[in-house]
Amino acid sequence: MTNRLLGCRPAEHRPGQPHLSVMRGFCARQAPPRLIRDHINPRPAMLGNDTLGDCTSAGIGNHLHATASLSGFDVAGITTEAVIRFYSQSTGYVPGNPSTDNGGVEVDVLTSASRAGYALADQTLYPCWGSADPGDLNGIRNITAGLSAAYLGVQLATADMWEDQDGNLPPVWDTDSPADHGDSTPGSAGGHCLLLWDYSGTDDTDLVTLLTWGSKQKATWRWVRSRIMEAHGLAWGQLHAPGGLYPAGDDWAALVEANAAYLRGAS
Questions:
Q1: Is residue 1 part of a domain?
Q2: Phi, psi of 209, rounded to the nearest 5 degrees
Q3: How many domains is the chain built from?
Q4: How does pLDDT run along the chain (267 residues), one tens digit per residue?
Q5: 242 in a domain, yes or no?
Q6: In this structure, what DSSP letter does residue 70 have?
Q7: Which among 85, 111, 204, 253 would be 20 to 30 A from 180, CA to CA?
Q8: Which residue range(s) make up the domain with 202?
């Protein structure tokens, strides 16, 4: 049996928070019709999400793993201890005090990472980030293809958390889950932060790969549309190899300035 905890609080908006629309055309361009990454191991890790509601912090750690994997390396120091330390930094969790394990608001967690850094065992990394319209699936595909993975906040249903006798989740999360899997109402289980890594196509029943709880989880696009409450893109200028669909030139400069302006206004 695998413990799988939730910890993404309801989506919120902060004045002046960066939006990927500052990169003209990035989310508006036609995304690749499919993104197959079966040959790449993004190294998803649990990172404490089996004992704490630290999915917002674990999601950033796994985004680092995913980004590095696309360039053929990994980032050292993404330990459970480091992820929990950032969870404390970004949410106020006090280690050893369960009453403070209340999850995180994604925009506040991302703000903390960009302002104070995401500290690993031997280095501290600072992401640029921007939000996107959660209803714009083409934009989310562009984030996945261009920024290694989309950082999502979803409202899970009780049916999504159903386990078989071996403790495995349903092989594919979909909106037509069997009645005996429990309540299929989005949010009936709670909020969760996870990453969208690749996709087989763009039809409602085509499959996407999600990175969560140390594993890959398949889901349909119609499930994503049903459950999603927020979407963000993270960019690690010091890790991501330029080229392809990665933002560059004026687009990159605009995202950097949007982050700087937000932090000036939020401080």
A1: no
A2: -110, 125
A3: 1
A4: 689 999 999 999 999 999 999 998 888 899 999 999 999 999 999 999 999 999 999 999 999 999 999 989 999 999 999 999 999 999 999 999 999 999 999 999 999 999 999 999 899 999 999 999 999 999 999 999 999 999 999 999 999 999 999 999 999 999 999 999 999 999 999 999 999 999 999 999 999 999 999 999 999 999 999 999 999 999 998 787 666 788 888 899 999 999 999 999 865
A5: yes
A6: T
A7: 204
A8: 21-265
